[in-house]
Design goal:
By secondary structure, this protein is mainly α. It contains four helices and no strands.
Length: 93
């Protein structure tokens, strides 16, 4: 699945970040992999997107029973998603 990405040394968090974003945005898998290969900032963005998604899910499952935290995590998650989509659109130009 990762093709040429095997040359990049991944730790478990990086692999999870890549898997997560590929599941969330499967229509953009080619662009995601291309950016992941060449842009360390994009890789970090994917890790942050995963972390915010996990935190949001914990809030929604009532592990964290604070609606204000849930709202904040949702804002961060949507902002990261917006940034990712912007990068993906610029990759296809």
């Amino acid at each position: 699945m990762y093709g040429e990405l095997n040359c990049i040394v991944f730790d478990a968090t990086m692999r999870k970040g890549l898997d997560y974003i590929l599941r969330k945005l499967p229509a953009h898998s080619a662009e995601i992999i291309e950016l992941y290969k060449k842009d360390v900032d994009f890789r970090i963005l994917c890790e942050d997107y995963l972390a915010s998604g996990q935190a949001l899910e914990e809030c929604r499952l009532n592990v964290i029973k604070d609606k204000e935290f849930e709202k904040e995590f949702l804002e961060v998650y949507l902002e990261l998603e917006k940034e990712i989509n912007h990068l993906l659109r610029s990759c296809t130009k």
